[in-house]
């Protein structure tokens, strides 16, 4: 796969990807704020490591989108859908995954999960799917403009 065509500011799909990226960034900050509120010691080192990797890749995706880089749509697709799946597994499944879990289903009181935690996680998941879909649209538009 080659990415010979950069995104153009005039493309509708590019504009949608930028707006989706803004929403994604706000959701990322909201979810991060909840983890700070709850305390970083409420999650396992595995979840902390995976979250840090996700944050780095998310920030890289945001930068690629706002630079109009030709790899931005693919980055949005990957970070969006992989993050959505990851957050669903980590937060919305019961504590079946041991160190891969920060379950909001019957959490211990020490996890400090509240309504804001649920909002932040669901907002993040929705924003992940939205940026993934916007990335798909931009990728298809970009592929259609290749020479």
From TrEMBL:
Kindly list the residue ranges recorded as spanning the membrane.
17-33, 45-67, 74-93, 116-139
Would you say which domain of life the source belongs to?
A: Bacteria
Q: Which UniProt keywords apply?
A: Membrane, Transmembrane, Transmembrane helix
Name it. DoxX family protein
Give the source species.
Nocardia callitridis
């Amino acid at each position: 796969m080659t990415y010979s065509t950069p995104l153009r500011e005039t493309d509708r799909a590019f504009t949608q990807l930028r707006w989706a990226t803004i929403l994604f960034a706000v959701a990322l900050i909201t979810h991060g704020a909840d983890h700070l509120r709850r305390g970083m010691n409420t999650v396992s080192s595995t979840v902390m490591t995976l979250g840090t990797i996700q944050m780095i890749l998310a920030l890289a995706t945001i930068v690629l989108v706002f630079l109009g880089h030709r790899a931005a749509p693919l980055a949005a697709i990957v970070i969006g859908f992989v993050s959505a799946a990851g957050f669903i597994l980590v937060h919305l499944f019961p504590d079946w995954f041991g160190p891969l879990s920060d379950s909001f289903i019957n959490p211990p009181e020490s996890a400090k999960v509240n309504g804001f935690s649920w909002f932040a996680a669901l907002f993040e998941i929705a924003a992940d799917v939205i940026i993934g879909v916007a990335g798909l649209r931009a990728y298809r538009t970009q592929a259609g403009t290749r020479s």
